[in-house]
Amino acid sequence: EDQVTQSPEALRLQEGESSSLNCSYTVSGLRGLFWYRQDPGKGPEFLFTLYSAGEEKEKERLKATLTKKESFLHITAPKPEDSATYLCAVQAPGDYKLSFGAGTTVTVRA
Amino acid sequence: GAVVSQHPSRVICKSGTSVKIECRSLDFQATTMFWYRQFPKQSLMLMATSNEGSKATYEQGVEKDKFLINHASLTLSTLTVTSAHPEDSSFYICSGSEIGGSDEQFFGPGTRLTVL
Question: Where residue B1 falls among pLDDT bands split at 50, 70, 90?
């Protein structure tokens, strides 16, 4: 069974204080690893898909990286509007289902 | 990104009644739609995968007779919670994957169900 573990559970940052979120996974092969952002009471918003070790993707203050066992989401110089829960999910080969981690709730204080 | 809508956004019902939730892909055709449930402070748990024109595939532990899923067209899937009970109160979220597109799923805004 696919397992996705995210850490830390919660992260409180000062505006401008860069940090990283971790997503470790165990899956028999990896079709893709996905990062989503979820605001309270809303559905997840797609951020990135990573397919192979060494791949990196960036979007504004966010950068996602992937190794064979884990992924990191780096938040550079965060702003209060980056406050959200960040979810990581994996997809196994031949399967379109997503297995989600529990998420990291990021709070950025001005 | 592609847009998915859900209706209603929130619903309150009495115990024992049935509730239908609609999920629509607004600007793309979704061969496959997924239904998730999310309890407070927890992550999304997949309930079932629905393919247009065929029966849904339910995850282990999800009662197919209680959570009826219909995917009648490439842009509409419905989830009916039958004989709802307070323990069914949750946040229900659907997603769709685009035909011939990449692997990402596009999520709806969710439906908050409260069963009294």
Answer: low
